[in-house]
Amino acid sequence: MVQKEKNHHLALLAALGGNAIWGFSFLFTRTALKVIALPAVLLSMRFVIATLIMTGILLTGKQTFSLKGKKLGPLLFLGIVEPLCFLLETYGVLYTNATVAGVVMAVSPIVSILLAAVLLHEIPTKGQLLFCLLPVAGVIMITVAGNDLGIVTTLGIVLLLGNCLTAGAYRTANRKSAEDFSAFERTYVVVVFSAVAFTVMALIQLRFDMTAYVAPLSDLSYVASLLVLSVFCSVVAYLLVNYGSGLMSVAKMATFGAVSTVCSTFAGVVLLKEPVSWMVLAGAALIIVGVWQVTRKGK
Q1: What pLDDT score was predicted for residue 155?
Q2: Whole-Å CA distances, 112 to 18, 90, 157, 193, 258
Q3: How many DSSP H helices and E strands does the chain contain?
Q4: For residue range 5-31, what is the model confidence (pLDDT) as tens digits?
Q5: Per residue in 25-42, is it b (16+ CB within 10 Å) or e — as a string?
Q6: Of 20, 26, 22, which Cα lies nearest the Cα of 259?
Q7: Which of 168, 106, 169, 156 is nearest to 136 (CA)?
Q8: CA-CA distance, 245 to 218, in Å (whole number)?
Q9: Residues 112 and 163: beta-carbon distance below 8 Å
Q10: Fewest beta carbons within 10 Å, which of 14, 29, 77, 283?
Q11: pTM as predicted
Q12: Is residue 125 classed as helix, strand or coil in its secondary structure?
């Protein structure tokens, strides 16, 4: 009983730490995209480095990777849906900013709860369904205000909402695959699939010009952002979140998305000095209150 409670506390800390790191990832993504206009190149380098790091850990023998006798469906789904998730997120940040991206991503827990209801039979209450309307209203307000400030495009919002959908699908599949695979195994599959997908995409966009591919590495701010995204956001954060996902329900895990929102908003407004208006703040408040009420009322 004591060990079970200890594991639960560790899962909470892991989920908290992982989502906090992801919240600041918008800051470093935005910084890197100022140097290069092709998000696929950034994503390719990010996950290639992450794959090399995790392969190195695997070769030391400190972690193992085995597919024998396990259900591969949920794991393969993770590997397929996560590259799409990151592509939507990165282009969403490109067409908005770090502040708005983080706030809109706060809708993700609600998507997770709805998907969990359909796929895992965790049925939401009437109160949850009612409060789901608040984040929708919040996103609409942010879109209108962002257009007026010149910091948001409709395409950017659509991409970020698409990211919310894929993130919800990822959480649900992650919970299911945790029955057979460790946090390391799930993380390794995700980074390898992402590295392959984005490298192929980047090379096609650059017409296989390797000189153009490595050109951003001459900029120190890009390299610094890339290393943070690779080491902390693609390896450390994934291991932490995947560990927590194996010990908590989808609904409870989804509540930690609010941590990412707080961190990304802080990074955008305070560190990047991004413009913000009362309407954006009001929309953010609606999203946060809605998410808080939906997840608080969960079983």
Answers
A1: 83
A2: 17, 20, 18, 22, 13
A3: 15, 0
A4: 677 678 788 888 888 898 788 788 888
A5: bbbbbbbbbebbebbbbb
A6: 20
A7: 106
A8: 38
A9: no
A10: 77
A11: 0.74
A12: coil
Half-sphere exposure of 115 (CA within 13 A, CB side): 22
Burial of 179 from C-beta contacts in 10 A (0-12 / 13-18 / 19+): exposed
CA distance 65 to 161: 33
Name the nearest CA neighbour of 271 among 31, 20, 22. 31
Catalogue the E-assigned strands of the chain: none
Cα–Cα distance for residue pair 201/138, rounded to 1 Å: 34
Residues 230, 236: Cα–Cα separation, whole Å: 9
Residue 262 CA to residue 253 CA, distance in Å, equals 16
Lowest-confidence segment of 15-29, 47-61, 95-109 by average pLDDT = 95-109
Mean pLDDT of 160-187: 84
Q: Is the pLDDT of residue 136 over 80?
A: no
Specify the 3-state DSSP secondary structure of 279: helix
With 0-12 / 13-18 / 19 or more C-beta atoms within 10 angstroms meaning exposed / middle / buried, residue 97 is: buried
Q: Find out whether 253 and 15 touch, Cβ atoms under 8 Å.
A: yes
The whole-angstrom separation of Cα 193 and Cα 47 is 9
Instruction: For residue 199, give the nearest of 86, 113, 72, 76 by alpha carbon.
Output: 86
